[in-house]
Amino acid sequence: MKKKVLIMGTSPRVGGNSNALAMAFEDGAVEAGHDVERVTLAGKKISFCTGCWKCLDTQRCVIHDDADEIVQKMKDADVLVFATPIYYYEMSGQMKVLLDRANALYKVNYKYREVYLLTTAEDDKPATPVNAENGLKGWVSCFPKAKFIETVFAGNCLDIGAIKGHKALHEAKELGLHV
């Protein structure tokens, strides 16, 4: 079954290692015949959530910036994929702000059922992405029709391009193939 896949690169670095994972996932999903869109947060204007809760009534954020448009794309996707560098054992700030701004989805009829996480970090310890994964799982738990599926982690990836040849690129592509 053809799915609509939305991949969100949340790194502030254009061409960063987590974006390479996003592209590998995209390659697999496209090869599998899915409709794929990749959005990069770098350079986007995304303001902090103000906690006004108006989005629960209007089903749209009252702040009209790039996050509002991205959140609407999230609502209509079957699969959400977040790609983030790990900073201080946590997801990027850009990703966290986007998740907060997605509060408008709480009471809407969202389509997504599967959520994936692609991560990169300087550290290569297996526990490195755990906090970011738990944060995303917490967000997903607020949406009962959605399920967190899997994380791909690439360690030893500090400098741009360090991910070249990393086994996680293959893992991300395989995930994309089997969405």
UniProtKB/TrEMBL annotation:
SUPFAM superfamilies linked: Flavoproteins (SSF52218)
Domain of life: Bacteria
Keywords annotated in UniProt: Flavoprotein, FMN
InterPro entries xref list: Flavoprotein-like_sf, FMN_Rdtase-like_dom, ISF_SsuE-like
Domain NADPH-dependent FMN reductase-like: 4-112
PANTHER family recorded: IRON-SULFUR FLAVOPROTEIN (PTHR43278:SF2), NAD(P)H-DEPENDENT FMN-CONTAINING OXIDOREDUCTASE YWQN-RELATED (PTHR43278)
Protein name in UniProt: Flavodoxin family protein
